[in-house]
Design a protein that fits this description.
two-stranded antiparallel sheet, mainly alpha, 84% helix, 2 domains, 194 residues, two-stranded antiparallel ribbon, 4 strands
Length: 194
């Protein structure tokens, strides 16, 4: 009975060892840890390691799934990079357009429309001030000429009044002489008739 017991003990031991070997969990951990687990749990035959086929199939499936997930993640990352690069290009283009608009607005800010033409503000100010100075000088000239003409008019009136006075004096003198001459003529005519 003892040999049967030993056989039973060896059978149970092999059964338990097989159960513990079949319960190897490869679902978690890194690929490196999974390879190490398979290596540690595999049996030895001379100088070779004996690995169960279902473990290799399971490891192969997990490695391929991991590689597929990495490829998918890589494609997604590449797509995100391309999308971000496109957004960067769009934003750079928008920035360039906005910079051009800013430059146009700044140049328009320095420009003013005068008589249908776009003129620089400094040139416009210079033009306006030169027109104002020209008008002030013209006004000064006309005021000066007006004062001169008023003085000339006053002098002409004064001379006219003086001339009228002299004329009136001359006329009165002439009337008096004429009257005197008429009297003398009448006196002479009376003398000759008498």
């Amino acid at each position: 009975m003892k040999p049967k017991l030993w056989i039973l003990f060896i059978f149970l031991n092999n059964f338990l060892w097989a159960q513990s070997q079949s319960n190897i969990d490869l679902s978690q951990g890194s690929i490196k840890n999974k390879f190490e687990t398979i290596y540690n749990k595999s049996g030895n035959y001379k100088e070779y390691k004996v690995v169960k086929q279902y473990l290799l199939r399971q490891l192969k499936k997990q490695v391929l799934d991991t590689l597929q997930a990495q490829k998918t993640a890589y494609r997604d990352a590449q797509k995100n990079i391309l999308d971000l690069q496109q957004k960067i290009n769009d934003l750079n283009e928008q920035l360039h357009k906005n910079q051009n608009k800013i430059n146009d607005l700044e140049s328009q800010k320095d420009q003013i429309s005068f008589v249908g033409m776009s003129v620089n503000k400094t040139k416009y100010q210079w033009l306006v001030w030169s027109i104002i100075v020209f008008l002030i000088l013209g006004l000064g000239y006309f005021v000066f000429m007006f004062k001169n003409s008023i003085q000339a008019t006053k002098l002409a009136r004064y001379n006219l009044d003086k001339l009228e006075e002299e004329y009136n004096l001359f006329r009165t003198g002439a009337l008096e002489r004429e009257q005197l001459l008429k009297r003398q003529l009448l006196d002479e005519q009376k003398k000759h008739q008498a």
